[in-house]
Design a protein that fits this description.
about 240 residues, about 25% strand, two-stranded parallel ribbon, seven-stranded mixed β-sheet, 7 helices, about 35% helix, alpha/beta, disordered N terminus
């Protein structure tokens, strides 16, 4: 802990004049990672990220863009970072314009389907050349392998499955389970599509801030803060299945 504190003191001068603009909201249904209009329980990342920035002594501005606009804003420099998983990118390569922080939390995506179709989608290779439900603006490492059928959110993917508009979709496991329970529309988690970690994807011109960002992440892991926040949002989802 002392080492982390020294790193943050050493780096704080470098960040004194920097204001990082960021976005973490994903789709409006990216529960439990982001929950709109609930300031008391805003979601896992909505609680963790501000604590990272406070510990790292980095000034910041939070923005609310849809996923596609977030990616564009990061490319052009209107935003400075977001939260992504390297597993969402081909060959886990985010591109030369970005650096990444240490891992913040684990995250997993599955093929989701109705129970009667689950066996058909038990193997990830089954999505090749098929029409698959996706969320507009989201990144998928292999979307050249299938035809995207874009919907606005994870919630809409669940509804589309039950209306037989699609037979399979890709969703984070926790958002899928949450909306399945909330809508009372049963789905099955079939093949794993990606399994990785969430990191801060930071524009390269700010890479000097990585030591203090990583020190803050390490401190929040070591003192149990991150695990406590994850449990607060995930236990209820798991217990209702």
């Amino acid at each position: 802990a002392l080492g982390s504190f020294v790193v943050m003191l050493f780096c704080s001068h470098a960040s004194a004049d920097v204001v990082l603009k960021y976005n973490i909201n994903g789709s409006s249904s990216w529960v439990p990672y982001y929950i709109p209009y609930q300031p008391e329980q805003p979601g896992i990342l909505a609680e963790i990220v501000p604590q990272i920035l406070v510990l790292a002594q980095i000034q910041n501005e939070k923005h609310n863009y849809p996923p596609k606009r977030t990616n564009q804003a990061l490319e052009t420099g209107l935003l400075d970072f977001d939260l992504v998983s390297p597993s969402w990118f081909p060959d886990e390569d985010m591109g030369e314009s970005f650096v990444q922080s240490d891992a913040i939390i684990q995250i997993k995506e599955n093929i989701i389907a109705l129970e009667e179709n689950a066996q058909k989608w038990a193997n990830i290779h089954a999505i090749k050349d098929q029409s698959i439900g996706t969320v507009r603006g989201y990144l998928y490492h292999d979307d050249s392998q299938f035809t995207r059928i874009d919907f606005t959110s994870e919630r809409e993917l669940i509804k589309a499955l039950h209306k037989n508009r699609i037979e399979a979709a890709i969703s984070g496991d926790l958002p899928a389970l949450y909306w399945s329970n909330k809508l009372n529309q049963k789905i099955v988690l079939a093949a794993v599509h990606s399994n990785g970690v969430l990191v801060m994807r930071l524009r390269k011109e700010h890479q000097r801030l990585l030591p203090q960002i990583n020190a803050a992440i390490a401190q929040l892991k070591a003192d149990g803060t991150i695990d406590t926040i994850i449990d607060k949002y995930t236990k209820k989802i798991v217990l209702t299945q």
